[in-house]
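Related to isopenicillin N epimerase (Phialocephala subalpina), 466 aa
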Amino acid sequence: MGEHIELKMGEVSLDNAPEYESTSFGKEMLKHFLIDPAYRNLNHGSFGTFPRVIRDKQREYQALCESGPDVFMRYDYFKFLQENRAAAAKIINSPPEAVVLVPNATTGVNTVLRNIVWNYHGKDEIIYFRHIYGACLKTVEYVCEANHNIVNPREIVVHYPMEDEDLLWLFRQTIQASRAEGKNPRIAIFDTVSSLPGLRMPFEGLTKICKEEGVLSLIDGAHGIGHVHIDMTTLDPDFFVSNVHKWLYVPRGCAVFYVPVKNQHMIRSSLPTSHGFEPRITSNIRNPLPPTSTSNFLNSFEFVGTMDCTNYIVVKDSIRWREQVCGGEKAIINYTTKLAKEGGKAVAKILGTKILDNTSETLTNCSLVNVLLPLRISETKIEGVDTVKNENALAAAAWMQHTLITVERIGITVYFFQGQFWTRMSGQIYLELSDFEKTAHALKKMCERAGNGEFLEAGKYGKGNS
């Protein structure tokens, strides 16, 4: 490792950042992370994690801030922010003026939907897929409610597995059906890789259809940067937000929010509104921050209230770490995607089940994999088969996940989907195939315990408390 660099007030260049040593993927990579050796983390996709040296770099910035809060918060921070915003833009092939940093993908989705001025004719619709991330669906519902339903949601029901071309056809049909009913399909929200189930969506094709149909595209890339290849110049969506604290190894919470210059007039305010907002009526409101030469859009997001934003200014360090230690984005994505595919198939073989994928295997072209669990839904006990009553399905899934995480010390997601029990697992650079195989045996035992009704003995997971 390179020598520790002590930062001083006014020294805002990262050009002297240390050099990192190359490390092989798999268990050797664990030495760089803070993960407890007794904890097997197959759920990287939920909350991410970051290398120890990135943690240390963030603490340097925190110490620098405390050594002179006014100097850092008013002057140095903004110089650091510009460097890191530019680094984030470069990794997705975007102009820097189209990128800002926000706390998370949910904030980005909220920012877009709360800024759009909906038509008073009451015909505007927000199109979304049924397996949208729950917080984003609640945002859609809230925006409709808060605007007295002059805008309304339209759901697309997808039953997986589905081929990409079928999903794209369904999407276009939904837009056309909206118009046939006299509605105005104003904006569509969809994922790069959905959360539950964790599947790669054909977001490139969905974005293309939006352009052809004149519908605004809002891409929820919570599982995006560092997970799948993203190129804004080629993709060219209307709005895109992607967490970088999940797959890019940046401390929580940090996300890239992309709005092309042509659409920035629609995003009048950050969330929350702060000093960068430019009112159309009152213009003499005091701004305590130094003058800036950036655009109104960029200025709106530079300071949105006092909080610790040092996670925003280690993005460049995380990217450098990935290049030097891991060999860059392509190497990381190739390893984690391949491991997820092979690991999922190994788990399915041990469980005697299957992974969730289509015939062209595009759904698993990412670092998440979903495996069917050998636990059936039945109102009567089936001899030789682990079963749970339908009314207890959610409670059983919650109990299994809680027990696996807190007792077995395996980070994993267990959920109920399309009438069946599934687990979602993440491929990651510090994991190997053996981690998936060991987890499969733990899952098999957990399904047996659930089939015996053990979860009903745990009060908060019983019927009526799921």
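Confidence is low (pLDDT under 50) at residues 1-5, 462-466. Residues 87-316 form a domain with the Aspartate Aminotransferase; domain 2 fold (CATH 3.40.640.10). ok done for today
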